[in-house]
Fold:
Amino acid sequence: MSCHILKIDCSDAKGLIYKISDVLYANDLNIEKNDEFVDNENGKFFYRALISGEVDVKKVTTQLQEIMPNDVNINLAKKTRKKVIIMATKESHCLGDLLLKYYSGELNAEVVAVVSNYDYLQELAEKFNVPYHHVSAEGLGRVEHEKRVLEVLKTYPCDYIILAKYMRILTSDFVKEYEERIINIHHSFLPAFIGANPYKQAFIRGVKIIGATAHFVNDNLDEGPIIAQDVINVNHEYSWRDMQRAGRNVEKNVLSHAVELVLEDRVFVHGNKTVIF
Amino acid sequence: MSCHILKIDCSDAKGLIYKISDVLYANDLNIEKNDEFVDNENGKFFYRALISGEVDVKKVTTQLQEIMPNDVNINLAKKTRKKVIIMATKESHCLGDLLLKYYSGELNAEVVAVVSNYDYLQELAEKFNVPYHHVSAEGLGRVEHEKRVLEVLKTYPCDYIILAKYMRILTSDFVKEYEERIINIHHSFLPAFIGANPYKQAFIRGVKIIGATAHFVNDNLDEGPIIAQDVINVNHEYSWRDMQRAGRNVEKNVLSHAVELVLEDRVFVHGNKTVIF
Amino acid sequence: MSCHILKIDCSDAKGLIYKISDVLYANDLNIEKNDEFVDNENGKFFYRALISGEVDVKKVTTQLQEIMPNDVNINLAKKTRKKVIIMATKESHCLGDLLLKYYSGELNAEVVAVVSNYDYLQELAEKFNVPYHHVSAEGLGRVEHEKRVLEVLKTYPCDYIILAKYMRILTSDFVKEYEERIINIHHSFLPAFIGANPYKQAFIRGVKIIGATAHFVNDNLDEGPIIAQDVINVNHEYSWRDMQRAGRNVEKNVLSHAVELVLEDRVFVHGNKTVIF
Amino acid sequence: MSCHILKIDCSDAKGLIYKISDVLYANDLNIEKNDEFVDNENGKFFYRALISGEVDVKKVTTQLQEIMPNDVNINLAKKTRKKVIIMATKESHCLGDLLLKYYSGELNAEVVAVVSNYDYLQELAEKFNVPYHHVSAEGLGRVEHEKRVLEVLKTYPCDYIILAKYMRILTSDFVKEYEERIINIHHSFLPAFIGANPYKQAFIRGVKIIGATAHFVNDNLDEGPIIAQDVINVNHEYSWRDMQRAGRNVEKNVLSHAVELVLEDRVFVHGNKTVIF
Structure:
């Protein structure tokens, strides 16, 4: 049985759920599961449904467009395995976790390439038969380096780019190429400790909890829409290196979880926030 | 603006969401929020909606009944403040927390009475102007004691009975009088440590996490449908009395949370499980 | 059997634990439990012990002083029930929780007074027979208001002041009067969302976790040494008022926990951090 | 600078910490960190210290033995990298996580071999250059199979055996060979859901939290001393397979954490409990 996912967002109005249900019912489709959310403050409607039956994507989309508000975004597609590129720098824990899940079949995606500004992780990627591209930034300005990275990325059509502890800041131009398609893991409980070495910042501040945040990347460093966060307890015995060590598990778990949500088409981006069903 | 809650459960079938939406739309009602769940294993459909507009309860219910499967349960009612009776024994933390929330307006219910097998908590209840009934069990068999308790309870029409550390086991007959309407807090992470003194059991077993479980009461001790659970970390330094002390906060928080869910009509009982929207 | 608590901090040096143990042993005292921590970065030693036996406080203190580094702070005292003043504004949940624990005997302290800039909580304090002082800030400058508050506070000798959602910023001069003796609850996971209305800030940022932080108050708003923190999950369905509502339980639990740690003499303040045994 | 770990357990008596400190001081050794715990109920004393300086292991041990109670166990050894064998069956997540940490240097141990009753994980182990032994149980009784497994294990001297989802029950005789040296991960929050398919049991019971437990293996299935536990929230939408999927992260994290504690010599076994510093 084929299974489709329908994602809709538009201005809120009366009867939207009825209207959507009506179209689906008229097309002899069954709603296996649906979620909706109305952002009353901004008058926005979000809807996601898992649909079973014989879906004529074009026909259903057109019929929905006709009856929904003008600003509607409709995304109706068969559930498929997405393609992802993973970017990393030197640390292996996030990359390794994703590769392991890819290898075991737990990751509902194909990892088409790993791209890094160092060669440290090449061996690891190759263990899992994933092409590895080392694009050194040595002696290059940010723009020139990104140009070279983009050249590599362009050879791998992909749905999402996962920054698995890629430790370089991306320019606006780079981000624009993959708008709302770059997922980053930041090693703090954002918005605490934005920027460099958050564990050192956390240590200096003397917090009793540290965390990690997975978010879409936008123009502003560490300010993109948050997808997932998690935390662990620490105490005065933790040096900042202990925090870093302990934080690695949180980082990889939060990133994995966020990636899973995105791959299942559960995430809507809405300004600098997310709606997640 | 009036706000109604619609709860439906029935056998699963095609197009149920459409059919419900259709009736609501035809009655010029708006779905502010809806949740549904299909238990595929048992072929059961659960639905809850927050509805705004002028609701003709009888008419809408009838129309829904006509188009839904025969075994449908429909509950359409205006959002109202429920009435609850709290039963307790000697410990004050759960009762106190509920009374404080009742006092501050946080608890969306009226506490109509406190009933206890001891008089320890009378002063506390009276601080919050809630009638207190001490029904001693001294020298009485279980059935005779329950008879006297029931006599008191019957004088206070109520929607739910909250067992806020009421330390007596209830008979089947008692439970039947308030089927799916008695909420209990058990001081363990069920199904671990069923029965008496779970903290002592936890201590003896040497667990590293303890918890609490709020559940509806049914015939089998500590086996009713679970509404909410939470846990905290412990270690070898905790005596069982330390666990008991630390557990109190979890107990009161879990019970409060479960009561809130029930009072908002978010909970369906389904065999010995719950579906919570 | 009398039980004493010994707290020591000083520059780190070789053999400190031996030297302390030696003095205690020579005085026929038994160490029921001891904890130590060396902050290697700053070369500081922290020590806390629970001691049983007949303690001659003056003699033991003198002997310890003689053999420890010159900058040593020694605090040896019988375990006693401390006195606390609670300050609050309008919200009752933190105050109520502390009063309930005071009433049930769970709080290891005497609540000698409640002081507030409003009269909202008077009824609640009086339910628990605690003197309530309403010191209105209406028409007063910060300094003048604090002067009046201090006049009231001075009539109640106390060990600690607990700010249980006291919503006014304190001046340096006020803080100096009760250095390292004022415990505040901030309704965010500090250092995220410093300042006014952290729930609104959290809502706008779209975080998936919110929290609360209990800390000692120093000169810088929300920057004092952190004692305890905790968090809960939220999602896109939470308005900032929902976050505020959900956050209340975290606030009261974190504050209660921090107060308990302080009352048991488990907390050392060390720059803008804490060491907690 | 060499660093040693000293572990002591014995009957409790007065002045033990003094006596230990005295010996260490007399040998010109410094206590970098020490932890102790007295189990008052059983009159047992536990002590662990990190010691710096030139340690004459034999001399210090002898001196300690002379002054401590007769039943003392003293373990004084240089901090070293231990050797471990990992046993697994078909699931790769726990094994993979440990191998990744071994590869990156995060695991403070050498993985000397992987032993399995299937060949599923051979490829994975070999990616990380760890010898893999497939000892099929097909057609063999438990005792005969274990005999063959033991033959393989004996060729690899090791400190600990890690059961990373090894799905066979071990006999008493097997366990005796590696007493208090076998660490298992059980996929439930023990003691809930002992035995086969705990996720199915959890699903049927309708719990709102699932967990995992790492413990030393003793004679009684799932009843050995617990080292670490953790949990995650689930809800009615989770099938038991969803719980299984979600539980994998908890399993691997809990196992990793327990292994880390054991490898750092932080864990004492004490009856069917652990004391962890």
